[in-house]
Amino acid sequence: MHNSTIAQLAEGLRAGRFSSLELTQAFLQRIERLDPGLNCYVTVTAEQALAEARAADARLAAGNAGPLTGIPISQKDIFCTQGVRTSCGSRMLDSFVAPYDATVVERFKQAGAVMLGKLNMDEFAMGSSNETSFYGPVRNPWDTGCVPGGSSGGSAAAVAARLTPGATGTDTGGSIRQPASFCGITGIKPTYGRVSRWGMIAFASSLDQGGPMARTAEDCALMLQVMAGFDERDSTSVDRPVPDYRAALGGSVEGLRIGLPKEFFGEGLDGEIATVLQQAIDELRKLGATVHEISLPNMGLSVPAYYVVAPAECSSNLARYDGVRFGYRCEAPKDLHDLYCRSRGEGFGAEVKRRILIGTYALSAGYYDAYYLKAQKIRRLISEDFRKAFEQVDVIVGPTAPSVAFKFGEKTADPIAMYLSDIYTIAVNLAGLPGMSVPVGFCGRLPVGMQLIGNYFDEARLLNVAHRYQQVTDWQTRAPEGCA
Ligand code: GLN
Fold first, then answer.
1. Whole-prediction pTM value?
2. Is 76 a catalytic residue?
3. pLDDT tens sequence across 37-61
4. Which residue among the candidates 152, 175, 196, 302 is catalytic per the annotation?
5. Which atom of ligand 1 lies nearest, measured to the CA of 172?
6. Is the CB of 19 within 6 Å of ligand 1?
7. Which of 5, 32, 224, 301 is 20 to 30 A from 218 in CA distance terms?
């Protein structure tokens, strides 16, 4: 069962080949057996999962089930879950239990999905390797000496190791796409505003967006169908009808115009990755797509602009963790100042502190124009680059990451090297566009992802292109050794 996709499992449940309870038990057993070596889960909600599975079986029997009823799904530990700890990978929230469900969590519940647990992540989603988590790093199931990517590393590794059929992730600068690429799975970051951010702990509010991570594009379509849609509780949620993503998978790729940005294929990209990507692009060509060279001239400014905007927003969002209202509080504070300083000093890890410092500096009087305002102007230029590109092409294709999964510790001493892991993904967040990562091969034993970037609200097209590709290739079916 664990090697089946969500679509196959849904069919099996409907046909009565197995129950949701059996399916849930099978995944819980795998988690018990394999997760100690991988560290994907911060919390496993076994009892709750079994109760939800029983309820799903009743719903299936009554004939009022939806496509995800009875399907186990795991949540990144950034989504608030009523009655279950939401740690956000931080000591600060180690004992935080939200009194409500995030909209995304609520929607999976309404769909009848079964939550297996909460997945490990970089602290407050800041990182590209999962090494900043208070709960220790997640291991990449393809090579346990390597990182799974981040910040949604627990989600990506859990899907790849078959410890869940599908997981949620969030992507502020690449955190769905880069770990999907490192772990050989499929993930999509939707258009900003497509999926509600309500109850999703904020890192950089103008960039954060939740999305699905699963083995196939079809499974991502099924999950996105549940996640997407207007939410009046999130003021940046967009009130626009949600298309039928699965129905869109039947579309043709014939005549699709693919743009290859020359800035994505130059210096800095690993040669072996370039070769693997070329083969994937040839497959799309065989399916009838045409390929065009394009340029996104301001791409080189995306990482520096992001590392002003994201820390600025994080310094403001994380001001709420003051040791008073919720979260970590230091022992025996001398006075209020000491309470603030020590609670934050002890509760946050090094990367989070680094970002708060950078952000506070960039926003301070006298520096605001030089940094924050300038970064916002660059952001506009980057959006313009994409706008012009989408006048010529339908989809932009490139690498998801400049390398395959790297070794633990390889980039921890050099934050800039770590930040460059997102060199191909960050511009998409700055522009608010949808982006996807699809497994397209291997370098040695480590998976390679191809990134697909679409115009605003063009998720259906991205999913369709990925699905067509997955119908003629089988990378998405490969399992890491010991996980099949
Ligand atoms: N790696 C990037 C960062 O550290 C992106 C993280 C994310 O998308 N949440 O900020």
1. 0.98
2. yes
3. 999 999 999 999 999 999 999 999 9
4. 175
5. 8
6. no
7. 32
